[in-house]
Write a structure and sequence with these properties.
Blueprint: E1 2-6, H1 19-31, E2 36-39, H2 46-55, E3 58-62, H3 71-88, E4 94-98, H4 113-129, E5 149-152, H5 158-165, H6 168-171, E6 197-203, E7 205-207, E8 219-221, H7 224-240, E9 245-249, H8 298-307, H9 339-342, H10 364-368
Parallel strand pairs: 1-2, 1-9, 2-3, 3-4, 5-6, 6-9, 7-8
Length: about 375
């Protein structure tokens, strides 16, 4: 499988698009050499599913994630996921169902039995509704009941991808724990029973943001040539690994500025050179949320914050969240005190990058806590 992550945001209409635009998206995916898309954090428009059917584009269908675990969440997710599967199961383009991504809304299934029972129950519910397709209870890490083992790894070094995934034992499910980051890949008691292993998120490189522009991604480059080189090296490493497939993040950049593969605004990508280092160097090149749990690439995130004129001291008042020189990056991986992030928001009043740019007014995190 040669997939790309497809979030399907549009500059002026968010999740709404015309029939022609949806058709063109499917055509562009095929023209780019992809044979599928992993629809991410949305239930896709049936018109897009129609064109995927017609063009032979494979899709992973995914439930948008809830924010917090609880009885109301479980009731609503079960009801809405049942409706989604029942609505779309007649589309031959859908080749996999993913009810949960990266343990969102179930943050600790390894220690909280109720959370693990919930994600496992979603797998079994999905198989009861549609026994003909693979289902993945939780994609990315903390894998439990699943027909495909999907791993998320945002290292920006092709050599690291080859080293991690290029040996046969891994393709047989022999993972170390934790691996490749802070989140364990397998929940206790899970054994490999022939499931294919897919690198279901990797890449995540974007262009360096303009001054004052919000940035969402895992690492940045300045020029189209740098982007093409990074894209080529990472994809080649994924192909060489011998895994069952890969999914590059992502088909389009979730901002108004297009990446090299984005075309929705119709404007050329023009990013000014960063005033800080364009690459944080070995050990930090993975970006602020690279790898499970987002605890890698700290230096890179801090450098980028300093280059954009970030605050000298963290607004949370903790005093130790970042160095006085580099300031607070707004990423929980840099904040030992976790004050802002315990409330579900960054010091700037926005969700952290892992929530893909969903912004809320300052203080909303306090209401959600």
């Amino acid at each position: 499988m040669r997939l790309a992550l497809q979030q399907g945001y549009w500059p002026d209409s968010h999740l709404a698009a015309s029939a022609d635009e949806l058709r063109r998206d499917a055509e562009l995916a095929k023209e780019a050499g992809l044979n599928g898309l992993r629809v991410h954090q949305k239930l896709e428009d049936p018109r897009f599913l129609y064109w995927a059917d017609r063009l032979g584009l494979m899709l992973w269908a995914e439930m948008p994630s809830a924010f917090a675990f609880g009885t109301v969440t479980m009731e609503r997710v079960v009801r809405e996921w049942t409706e989604a599967v029942s609505r779309d199961l007649s589309h031959p383009s859908i080749v996999a169902w993913v009810p949960v991504n990266e343990s969102w809304s179930t943050p600790n299934p390894a220690l909280v039995p109720q959370q693990r029972h919930f994600i496992d129950s979603l797998y079994h519910l999905t198989k009861a509704l549609d026994p003909s397709r693979p289902a993945v209870s939780n994609d990315g890490w903390e894998i439990s009941a699943a027909d495909i083992w999907g791993v998320h790894d945002y290292t920006q070094q092709a050599s690291v991808l080859r080293e991690r995934y290029g040996h046969a034992s891994l393709r047989q499910g022999e993972f170390t724990d934790p691996w490749p980051g802070a989140k364990r890949l397998l929940l206790p008691g899970v054994l490999h029973q022939g499931q294919p292993v897919v690198l279901s998120e990797f890449g995540g490189t974007t262009f360096e943001p303009a001054e004052g522009e919000a940035w969402f991604g895992y690492d940045t480059v300045v020029t189209r040539e740098e982007y093409a080189e990074r894209l080529s090296s990472l994809v080649e490493a994924a192909v060489d690994s011998g895994l069952a497939g890969f999914c590059f993040t992502q088909f389009t950049e979730p901002s108004r500025r297009p990446t090299a593969s984005s075309r929705r605004t119709g404007r050329p990508s023009s990013r000014p050179p960063s005033s800080g280092p364009s690459s944080p160097g070995p050990g930090a090149a993975d970006g602020p949320r690279a790898g499970p749990g987002g605890r890698r690439g700290r230096a890179g995130a801090a450098y980028r914050t300093a280059a954009r004129g970030g605050p000298a001291r963290p607004p949370c008042g903790g005093g130790k969240a970042a160095s006085p020189t580099l300031g607070c990056s707004g990423w929980k991986s840099l904040c030992p005190r976790r004050r802002c992030h315990r409330k579900g928001r960054t010091p700037a009043g926005r969700w952290s990058g892992r929530y893909r740019g969903r912004s809320v007014p300052a203080g909303a995190g306090d209401r959600a806590a």
